[in-house]
Structures are given as C-alpha cells and as structure tokens.
Design goal:
The complex is a heterodimer of chains A (147) and B (415).
Chain A: H1 2-7, H2 10-17, E1 30-36, E2 41-50, E3 53-62, H3 65-78, H4 83-97, H5 107-110, H6 126-146
Antiparallel strand pairs in A: 1-2, 2-3
Chain B: H1 5-9, E1 18-19, E2 23-24, E3 26-27, H2 38-51, H3 61-81, E4 88-91, H4 94-107, E5 121-125, H5 134-143, E6 146-152, E7 158-159, H6 163-166, E8 171-177, H7 190-198, E9 202-206, H8 218-221, E10 225-229, E11 240-244, H9 246-251, E12 262-265, E13 270-272, H10 286-302, H11 304-323, E14 328-331, E15 342-347, H12 352-361, E16 364-365, E17 367-369, H13 374-379, E18 385-389, H14 396-412
Helix pairs in contact in B: 2-10, 3-10, 4-5, 11-14
The chains are: A alpha+beta (147), B alpha/beta (415).
C-alpha cells in the first residue's frame, strides 16, 4: 500500500474531511464555475480582491478527495497574497503536477500543497488536483478586469 | 459456473501480466472495453502479415484475399445477428453508426420517409449513453424537431407509463438502448417498437451493451436499425456495426462521401452504390473488421446463452455480496432479472474516484465517473458512481476481490 499512501497523504485526507473556505460568500468580484467533464467534478469559486491582494476566496463543490483537498489547500495559500506572488505559487504547482513524479517541490512556496506531489505519478488524477487552481486563475483574471 | 473461466482466461494473453507491482489483474471494466483473445489478435496480425491490400479495389491476388476476408467477416456478423450480409454496414464504432443515421436524416429529400422537420418529434430515454443522446439532441436542434424522452424509475427501470403521450403520430425517430451502460437494466423493447411502428416512426437500437453479452436477433427484435461496437465484443477498436433492414438501408441517404460508395461520378454529380457499400466510403478498417469476425466466432463457439447465464450468476452474486456492506447503495435494479452484468454503486463517504484508485492499487480495474451518461447520473442524484462490469472471463473470485477491496477502502478512508 506504500505507493497509494504517496497519493493519499494525511494532509489531503484532513483537508477533504475538513475543507477550508468552503461555503460561498455573498459578495465577490468574480465567480466562476469549473467542471471536469471526464468525471463530473464541479466547483464554484468566488474571489474578492483588494487592490493587487487576494482578499477572500470561498468555494463550493463536489468531487474526489484530491480535487476537494486541492482547492481547500489552494484557498488557504492564496488568501492574503498579492497577485504576483499568487502567480508564482500557481506556476510552481502546475509545474509540479506535470513533473510525472520527478518534481522537487519547493515547500517554502507551496507549503501544504507539497502533499499533492504524489498526484503527479497518476496521470488520470492531475486534472483533479488542478480543477480548483484553474478556477482560481480564471476568477482572478476576471476580477482584475472588473477592478 | 456455467463457463470454464480458467480455460477461457488462457485464451486472453492480457491475463498473464500483473498490475501495480505484481498483483493479479482483476478486470471489471468490460463495459468500457473488453479484453481480446489471442485469436482476435492473430486475425489482425495475419491480415497485415499475409493478406494486406485494399479490399474491393485492385485486380491482384492480395486484393482478392483481402476482399474475401473482409466479406467473410460481414457474413459472420450477419449470422451472429440473424441478419442478411447486405444489411451489415461496417463503421468505425457505434458512435459513428449513430451519427451516420442522424446525418442521413438531415440529408433526406423532402417528402422521403427520413425527412424531419419542426412538425416531428424524436424520442430517446434518460438512460442513454451520450452517443445515443447527443446525435439526436443535435439533430433536433438542426431540424427544429422536438426532443422527448422516457424517464427512469427510482429503481432504475425505464418508465414506460407515458408511452402513449411520448410516441405519437408526430414521432419520426425512437432511439433507445437495449441495455443501460450504467444501470445494467435490460430494456424490453417489444412494446416500444410496436408502438413506434404503429405511428410510422423509425426505431434505432443502441445494442452496445447487449450484443456482446446476450443472443440478439436483429430481425426478430423488429427494430429498423441496430448498432454495436466491436471492441466491447472482444473485437478490435475502430470497428462497429450498423444493422438496418435492407429496404430502409437502400432508402437511407449516405452520410460520408468518397471512394467505393458510388455507382457513377461526373464532375458535377454522383449516384450511390447499393447498401451496404453506400455507407462505407473510403478504404475500411479491414484488419479490424477481420478481427471482429474472429471475435464473434469465438463468442459463438462458447455460446451466447451460456455467456448470458454466466453473467447472470455473477451479477446476482455481486448484488448480494455488495448489498451486505454498510453504506453501499446500488444504482440500478436490485434484482437480477432483466439485468446485464453491470453493477454501479456508491459508497457513503468515499468518492468513486478515490475508491477506483484504491481498487486499482489492488489490481482491480473498475470504471468511475458518470460513464458518459451524465443526464442519467444527474437524474439519479449521484455525481458519479463506481461501476463493475463483467464478462465471460470473470469469476466469483474476481467479485470476492472487489467486495474485499471495497471493505478495505472503507477502512483506508476512515469510513
């Protein structure tokens, strides 16, 4: 069961059972709805900016532990960051997911998101991990256009 | 066991490999695609090694041999379906067959039997695979016809209670599955076909999940068109079959235009060959067609009735054993009558993707998700399910492994 434990780290299962920032806010600068058409996972994500800073992220969704934990971790990481720092984290994470298991995650940048490193060994699950992150990217671009 | 599974497995080379660090392969995803016996692999290899040439083209010996093998496969398919070989159209899969039909309706001359417009309706069901929904949904949009559908009862059967208001004088097409790829439900089509024909509608049957598993006689069934994919019936990918009654096939306009489907061509016009050639433009997937012929012969040697009985035994056992696990909900009929070898289920607190991943770590292959029937899973109120689908090479030990795996997954994910 060693290899599977790589994928389902305790941090992931914790976030899955006790997600952060879940429950949609009533106000937001942008709201997006992303779907993973191959499996049916869905997420709605709200973002509020204050100048260049991510002031709030809230979300709701249905999906597997990887997709739900990943959006929970992402929201915790991004809130309070300015958009250029958020972009760096985003790029780092996407690169890690595409590393086919060979990526060396930078814990100072990715923090809890390093727990998702094992996902990169399972090609079918990478899109699960990226669902919430792509929603964040989309929402932040839309919110910037609006502000 | 009505089949000697141990002996059958020896015919399938894939069962000699292992999964995830040396684990035995437990393949329960035949509803997605079936594994291939050596005779099918050999038939494809032999075609390429010994007989490769463009069928129905060329005057040389290889072209003759390729043509003979290709047409012999057509006869095998015809015999398998209780049909005439002229009624067998080779496509690249059931998806193409259904799109072929939908576009042929679009191409029909005004006033012909197939002409469709805003005054018509198309009837499908909520349990259709996307391949037998979207072509009709989009034909409805193109033509202005109204799309109507049969619902599904809470226990996963087709709700035929409103058949008289669904199938009316306006109905042009009734497109329906013979067996649900999610629920396992076998649909009794007799009443629907009778009603559809009484109002002059064309009946199209998606037999992807039935033809590989149970004896289907296309003529006796009484539908107008029927399709299945080769790769779900032990055959290669890239080949499917469209059966149509010869009269209708000859009336139906073509969909794909090109080589070999013509009678005569000038710079400004063309006329069509007789069916089935009219629907087989371009050099066909010859090796795959020949492989499909070998697959159906293999199935016939074992016997479709024996295969069906075997799958009934497995299904009944799996329904019982899964039902004993706390937190399991079977999505589909709970009794094994009028039910094929597909069992979809959910486990409380474990998302199907996570369950599928866990089972994979034990060497067990299942399908997870909405199974290309998103409207159905939505109607049933489940975002996704885990699906085990069985075939002639599965036995009780495979199902014991699955049931054990589900129990272990519950522990692993803390449920």
């Amino acid at each position: 069961m060693m290899q599977l434990d790589n994928l389902y780290q305790e941090v992931i299962l914790d976030h899955y059972k006790h997600p952060e920032n879940k429950g949609l806010s009533t106000t937001f600068d942008a709201q997006v709805h992303h779907i993973n058409p191959s499996c049916g996972d869905e997420i709605t994500l709200n973002i509020s900016l204050e100048g260049p800073v991510v002031k709030a992220i809230s979300w709701d969704g249905v999906g597997c532990s990887i997709s739900q934990a990943s959006v929970s971790i992402m929201s915790g990481l991004m809130i309070g960051k300015d958009l250029s720092a958020a972009q760096l984290i985003f790029d780092n994470f996407v690169q890690l997911m595409q590393s086919k298991g060979s990526g060396k995650p930078d814990e100072t940048i990715l923090e809890d998101a390093v727990s998702l490193t094992g996902v990169s060994q399972y090609p079918a699950r990478i899109k699960c991990a990226l669902l919430g992150w792509m929603a964040f990217k989309d929402a932040s671009v839309q919110a910037q256009k609006k502000n | 066991m009505s089949l000697d599974v141990e002996r059958i497995r020896k015919d399938f080379p894939i069962f000699t490999r292992t999964i995830r660090d040396g684990k035995k392969l437990i393949y329960l995803d035949s509803g997605a695609t079936s594994q291939k016996p050596q005779v099918v692999i050999d038939a494809e290899i032999d075609f390429y090694k010994l007989h490769n040439a463009a069928a129905h083209r060329g005057a040389h010996q290889l072209a003759e041999e390729a043509t003979e093998l290709f047409e012999a496969a057509r006869e095998t398919v015809a015999a398998f379906l209780g049909a005439d070989s002229q009624e067998i159209v080779f496509t690249k899969g059931a998806t193409e067959s259904l799109n072929l039909l939908a576009y042929a309706f679009t191409n029909a001359e005004p006033g012909s039997r197939f002409a469709i417009g805003p005054e018509h309706t198309i009837v499908v069901s909520e349990m259709e695979h996307h391949a037998n929904l979207i072509p009709w949904q989009q034909l409805a949009k193109r033509s202005g016809a109204a799309l109507k559908w049969f619902s599904v009862t809470p226990d996963g059967r087709l709700d035929e209670s409103n058949i008289d208001s669904l199938i009316t004088e306006k109905t042009k097409i009734v497109a329906i599955t013979q067996q649900s790829n999610v629920l396992g439900t076998i649909v009794n089509l007799d009443q629907i076909i009778k009603k559809a024909h009484a109002v002059g509608a064309v009946v199209i049957v998606d037999a992807c999940q039935s033809v590989p598993h149970v004896a289907v006689n296309a003529r006796k069934l009484g539908a107008d068109f029927l399709t299945f994919s080769g790769h779900k019936a032990l055959g290669p990918t890239g080949v499917g079959v469209l059966w149509g009654s010869y009269e209708l096939l000859n009336e139906l306009p073509p969909f794909l235009f090109g080589g070999s489907m013509i009678e005569n061509v000038t710079m400004t016009d063309a006329t069509w060959a007789q069916a089935p050639k009219k629907f087989e433009a371009g050099v066909p997937n010859m090796a795959q067609v020949v492989g499909l012929g070998a697959a159906l012969k293999y199935l016939q040697n074992i016997g479709m009735d024996a295969i069906h009985k075997h799958e009934e035994e497995l299904t009944s056992y799996l329904l019982t054993e899964l039902g004993k696990i706390e937190g399991i909900a079977i999505v589909g009929p709970l009794d094994s009558s009028m039910r094929g070898g597909i069992v979809s289920f959910t486990v409380e607190g474990i998302h199907p993707h996570d369950l599928g991943q866990y089972l994979d770590s034990l060497g067990i292959a299942v399908r997870t998700g909405h199974h290309c029937a998103w409207p159905l899973t939505r109607a049933l109120g489940v975002p996704a399910t885990t699906r085990a689908s069985m075939y002639l090479y599965n036995d009780f030990s495979d199902l014991d492994a699955l049931v054990g795996g589900v129990k272990d997954a519950k522990k692993y994910f803390g449920q």
